Amino acid sequence: MSTPAKRADIEDIEVDLFVRALQQRHGYDFSGYAPASLKRRLQHVVQSGGFESLNALTGRVLREDALVPQIVAGLSVPVSEMFRNPSVFSVLRQEVFPILATYPRINIWQAGCAHGEEVYSLAILLEEAGLYERSQIYATDFSDAALLRAQEGIFPIKDARQYSENYQAAGGQRSLADYYHARYERIKLDEQLKRHIHFANHNLTADGVFCEAHLILCRNVLIYFNNTLQNQVLGLFRDSLVRGGFLCLGNRESIDFAPAAAAFTAVDAKARVFRLANRA
Amino acid sequence: MPEPIAPLAVVVGCSAGGVQALSTLLEGLAANLPYPVIVVCHTGSEDSEMLRDVLALKSAVLVQEAQERHAPEPGIVYLAPAGYHLLLESDGRFALSVDARVCYSRPSIDVLFESAVAVHAQQLVGVVLTGANDDGAQGLKAIRNAGGLGIVQSPREAAAAAMPEAAIRIAGADHILPLADIAPFLNRLCRP
């Protein structure tokens, strides 16, 4: 008889069974996700949804389609803030925008837009740089719930002060309050900012090239992927960028183990801004 | 007393008063420890490089920021980058997340400790130092439940007693030590 599995191993098996159920029954593939965070998120989905256990959730997800959006939302990355890491937005403004300005049309892909904080940040900076009229931002996420929230552009007022500080630190030229209306406990971003944003569902783990982009932002999304999936998605970004196009990742992301990273050179290593090398 | 013979990693958590405490701890650590020391310190600042530089100043051990996907190496002290949860992946390498705060904190001590338990089980040592909230208590409980060793700074001499007190209340401790004794204790934990 083989040795019985340790407790920790049993948890891994349960996660594995859930992932397979969701993939085979509903087509959402989390098998390329890094297990440590996936496990924590699943625990959270189980607890917050009042499920008895992960196994109980696995059983129900096989039969109840209605549970899927809730689970997908729970497993997506909802946490960001406007102008998060302001220095990165400064780099985009100072190093990347002048080159984008040489194109007659500017396509930007924000992959994994969550609740839209960074999409609107980008729209504001493009507006202030005089580039927004010829820009199109494709904001994608695999969670429809997140996309709906992003489209609303409504955020808690308690975050507004931090957003304003970030905006100033990023080199914003006005007052952030010029771009939103505060009502009760919330701020709503100016509808005008949406005029060049196209929200769409796209799943980085399954879907292909989305557009021909001059700049791709994908911050703090690949950190949830294992090396294989990270490399696959970097390849997708490489294939989606024009020659000399830019890629901006989260400022602690490591692409040291991804062969696809060889296509990129660092514009600002600290800000994790890269450029697709011009191949001969 | 459950004394691990060969710790594979030491995880440390601290909050209010933590920079000072860490500075003392690292100053006392031997330069060639046979395991990595992985630290979450709540600073509230986005600038973890400054913390690294401050700590590196006085310490004989190498102090680095933990890099995602890289494997921790023995004899090096790793700090969680500001604004990210630091986890150990199932293969022992570092992983980062920007998931919601835990105990109002990101990085959270509980997140690091709990993920490290899943990898190193009883060959893990958890250390909870000074702090003003109860982050780390659940993580230390997980470590001790898995047979690892739990060390807590004596609340009486901690700059902020709440965190070590919570750890002792919720997780218990194998050793409650004054700060000055923790580094010598860790230096004695060696491989067989």
Structural class by helix and strand composition of chain B? alpha/beta
- Overall mean pLDDT of chain B stands at 92
Mean pLDDT of chain A: 93
Widest sheet, order of strands of chain A: 6-2-1-7-8-10-9
Shape of chain B: globular
Uncertain stretches of chain A:
none
Determine Rg of chain B (CA atoms, Å): 14 Å
Biggest sheet character of chain A: 7 strands, mixed
Order of helices and strands of chain A: HHHHHEHEHEHEEEEHEEE
Q: How many beta strands in the DSSP annotation of chain B?
A: 9
Terminal-residue CA separation of chain A: 60 Å
Greatest interface: A-B, 26 and 26 residues
List the helices and strands and how they pair.
The complex is a heterodimer of chains A (280) and B (192).
Chain A: H1 7-26, H2 35-48, H3 54-63, H4 68-75, H5 86-100, E1 106-111, H6 117-128, E2 135-141, H7 144-152, E3 154-156, H8 160-169, E4 180-183, E5 186-189, E6 197-201, E7 213-218, H9 227-240, E8 241-249, E9 264-268, E10 273-276
Parallel strand pairs in A: 1-2, 1-7, 2-6, 7-8
Antiparallel strand pairs in A: 3-5, 4-5, 8-10, 9-10
Helix pairs in contact in A: 1-3, 2-4
Chain B: E1 9-14, H1 18-28, E2 37-41, H2 48-58, E3 62-65, E4 76-79, E5 85-88, E6 94-97, H3 109-120, E7 124-128, H4 137-145, E8 149-153, H5 162-170, E9 175-177, H6 179-188
Parallel strand pairs in B: 1-2, 1-7, 2-4, 3-4, 7-8, 8-9
Antiparallel strand pairs in B: 5-6
Helix pairs in contact in B: 1-2, 1-6, 3-4, 4-5
